[in-house]
Specification:
Length: 415
């Protein structure tokens, strides 16, 4: 009698960006490895419903993974903890009090691997800075590894994660293999949209981020929205797909669109990989959607007011704040109506030139995406590099079971 397969448990913590990043790996492992059963745990019922409503991601997840909710977690672990070989969770700061750490304690042979929240960038240099351990900044060592999109990110993450536990894999979602799968899964939708938008001279994606006390003030948000809509209204025969952030209030966004004819825009929640196939270029607030669009060859304009505060922002030569996307030449930059108008003109006049330059820079930052699936398999086969885990003390195990028990009762609480 064959022994049961080992399990890879994937945790979706707080964002569909996590699912967008990990799903290509789930699909690749299912297609190329028969050694594992894959189970996906949603920490939030609301997020699970958002995934179902989005459509494409959930359909592909359901084809390749068993999906469970947090309320099912205790029963799942009681029957399967010894089979769990790997736990994947986003790289939200993790401590011994995290629910993921309790799951790891119960799953005595499992390794906990942290993965990116999205295809975001965190640095502008792939030259490794001297490594100095700072225990006050580091996460507790309740994880076994961290996988990253790019070597450019190592310096940033070494503030939190020990170097010997970092592995640069790359973004499998940016590979031609994954983009072909997305294209096949969504071709009917794309064709249906193009039947309508084909009568317009150009089609633009407008990617939003709502006001935030740290990144973007309400005043700056209102100004950016008003000025962008004014520019779009003045562009003849142009159709706009408006994609709000998942946590934005749609009705709040729609009030800014009153000055646009209703047949010239559509508010959508399409996946960025899909939306990029429907559009000529994007105008995006500060967002990893910028590189998502470039992954399928669609150029971008970053439109944002960097007046807030964020440790990820950089300084230009004139000491203005800006993003990694701008510094790395991955986007045209616009901060107000005048610079947006200039960027739109440049895109309209020289879109092929803009695309070529942005894609050349993109290929330097995200290397070898076609090999990432095999690199993940090798990473799992060879182990994460962390030391073999010691036996979990009985008191810690009991505490972990109680943590999981109460989290299962509450359904959505805990990290």
């Amino acid at each position: 009698m064959n022994s049961p397969k080992k399990i890879i448990l994937v945790i979706i913590h707080s964002s569909l960006g996590e699912l967008n990043w990990i799903l290509p790996f789930i699909s690749y492992l299912k297609e190329n490895q028969d050694n594992y059963d894959i189970v996906t745990l949603f920490f939030s019922d609301k997020l699970l419903e958002s995934a179902r409503n989005e459509g494409m991601l959930y359909k592909m997840l359901d084809q390749n993974s068993r999906v469970i909710r947090k309320r099912q977690l205790l029963g799942f672990l009681l029957g399967n903890s010894s089979r769990i070989a790997y736990i994947f969770k986003d790289f939200w700061p993790i401590t011994s009090k995290s629910l993921a750490a309790s799951i790891r304690s119960i799953s005595s042979s499992a390794q906990l691997i942290l993965y990116p929240h999205a295809y975001a960038l965190y640095s502008v240099s792939n030259k490794l800075s001297p490594y100095i351990h700072n225990s006050k900044k580091h996460d507790e060592l309740v994880y076994d590894g961290l996988v990253l999109n790019s070597a450019y990110d190592i310096n940033y993450w070494s503030e939190r994660i020990a170097h010997d536990r970092i592995k640069v894999l790359g973004p499998l979602g940016y590979s031609a293999w994954w983009q072909r799968i997305v294209a096949m899964e969504t071709q009917d939708l794309v064709d249906a949209e193009r039947k309508f938008t084909g009568k317009f001279d150009q089609v633009i994606a407008f990617i939003l981020r709502g006001p935030n006390g740290q990144y973007l003030s309400e005043e700056d948000y209102q100004r950016l929205m008003a000025e962008a809509i004014t520019e779009f209204a003045n562009m003849s025969n142009t159709f706009i797909y408006v994609k709000p952030h998942p946590r934005q209030d749609i009705s709040e966004v729609e009030k800014y669109l009153d000055s646009l004819p209703k047949n010239r825009f559509k508010v959508v929640d399409y996946n960025t990989f899909v939306l990029g196939r429907m559009t000529d270029f994007s105008v995006s607030f500060w967002s990893s959607a910028i590189t998502d669009f470039l992954a399928i060859g669609t150029p971008t304009i970053e439109y944002f007011s960097f007046n807030g505060s964020c440790s990820l922002w950089l300084r230009t030569r004139d000491n203005a704040q800006t993003s990694f996307f701008d510094k790395l030449g991955l986007t045209l930059q616009a901060r107000d109506k005048n610079s947006l108008r200039a960027a739109l003109k440049k895109m309209n006049d020289n879109i092929d030139e803009v695309r070529t330059e942005q894609l050349n820079n993109f290929s330097e930052v995200f290397e070898n995406s076609e090999e990432v699936g095999e690199k993940m398999i090798q990473y799992l086969q060879q182990g994460t590099g962390s030391k073999k885990r010691s036996r979990v003390p009985m008191a810690t195990l009991l505490k972990s079971y109680l943590h999981v028990f109460f989290a299962s009762l509450k359904g959505t609480a805990g990290r």
